[in-house]
Amino acid sequence: MNLHKFYYKDYFMDIDFGYLLEKESKASKEMIQKMQKRIEEKNANIQKASLHTTIEKPALSNKDFQLKVSYPGLVTGIGISHETGIEGEFKLGVHFDYTYGMPVVYGSSVKGVLRNAFSDSEYILSLLAKIIEKDNVKALMKDIF
Predict the structure, then answer these.
(1) How large is the average pLDDT for residues 73-101?
(2) What are the C-alpha distances in Å from 74 to residues 10, 34, 41, 92, 100?
(3) Where do the coiled-coil regions begin and end (predicted)?
């Protein structure tokens, strides 16, 4: 399945964005509600769907996980904003490459995960114990961000 086609084409296929061009009116409010209902229906269908899996998924009990990337790979640090502003639409923080349909992770998403991890100084020190000579995680955070 090409996830780019699924999310960028099929997800918004029957959504009318004409209301974005109109001034606030009763008709545009009704149109917004109608489009929100369609998005909610699509979201419900996506959540009901299941993908074929070949491995069991262990419960995430830590703040980290490993990913294995195979050809053509995973692209990081590039992308476009996809949100339309319709209430209830999925907010992914990722988009799918046009050619391969492979996930592209925004650099800002990676940075957000790292910044969040840095809020736990002990966790960072445990990961970087061999590299850091001092207990100065704040200085390290300042250097990185």
Answers:
(1) 64
(2) 22, 36, 30, 16, 10
(3) 25-52
